[in-house]
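Pair request: fold both.
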Amino acid sequence: MKVEKIYPKEFAANSYIVTCDACEGLAVVVDPAQPRIAEELKKRSLTPVCVLLTHAHFDHVGGAAALQAMGAKIFCSEKEKALVGTRADLFDTAGIPRVPFTVDGTLRDGEILNVCGLSVRAVSTPGHTAGEMCYLIRDEGKAQETKEKAALFTGDTLFAGSVGRTDFPTGNVGALRESLKKLAALDGDYPVFPGHEEDTTLNEERQKNPFLRDA
């Protein structure tokens, strides 16, 4: 499994292109921040099959419509789907024109989505928003979920050394605290790819992130 970070500096948000050898030319995209993610895929001769939204904020969904136009199916949680296209997505707050898209499917906590040779496990982590979702993605061609064969995408729930804000619409500090406990309790160690800032690992955050350590 290969994870490539696309970083549009205008939003200071991370987008991720996930591929595996079993499905050459196809990709899963996590949190398409800007429409130019479509051009990045074309440069790599990749077709987006699936888009995973951790949450509906403008800096995580700005490229969703462009990928949907390329044939990708868009997924998020049921609660987050209800926020798409509303003021809670913060497009209006940021003064950025909203480009409409449709959520094609919703995922429940613990549900597994198999796509592009990858197994996507939905991990419900409300707090930053009511329907925030993390994704544990593993290469189906690998026997075990180890840090070399799987990765955790945490959106704005967990960052390197920090956590997401809870002062936006539908945010809840108590819910975030419970979500951090849930992530800390996951079996094993994984690379962590957050919605902002640098990559980390789950064990690194268990040991050094005070928000996760004390959750």
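--- second member of the pair ---
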Amino acid sequence: MISIPVRIYVYYKAIQWKMDKPKGIGKRLNNYRKSINSNGYIIVFSCFQSALNGILNAGSIIPKIITISPRWAVQLILFDSSETRNAFLITIGHELTHKDGDFSMLSKEGPDRIFISWVNEVHADFGAAEKMVNGCKQKLLDSINYKSEINESIINSSKLNKNEKNRKLGSHPSWSQRKKYVERGTFDDELIKEIAKTTGCYNTELIKKVREYYKSPIILQ
């Protein structure tokens, strides 16, 4: 079931951009959901997920559910293409990888917390490719390019997101940084150490624990 607010959001965007009024929004989005192997997790398009800033986003915090921002509904309905579907599929894979279990950030602060967060995010990028596109590096890079182009355009033009422009070391690495890591082709011990250096984390005991937690490398093709 696709909520009425999400359907209205898509319809509103079509009117705003002077596009043909879309038909069968709910049915089409449901078909997208059903076509993806989400390992039993429910995919929910939700206006509570980044609706105000209008970016492409998803979340895995709620048990048994993956929440999807309404902007994804807009892209799937108004800009349906192989590029859109690939980026959406990898987004779901990213959240599924988080569902498998991240290294805990509980009680961590400063560079230690940023380091763990970055490693978790980059691991989820690699895991998404492994789960959804047979480890295809190019498809993962294509998805990053797709999402970064849309989200950065929104951030650059939105007063709501003006603080995002100046954020240097946040909970997520930048799109360019994520792309750089993916281009290496392998999530492994060396990449984790590189992320520690970039985030200014010099807690050797923590770095060791994170390396042990993610001891299985992911090699893209």
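Observation on the second member. The chain has two domains: 4-80, 100-219.
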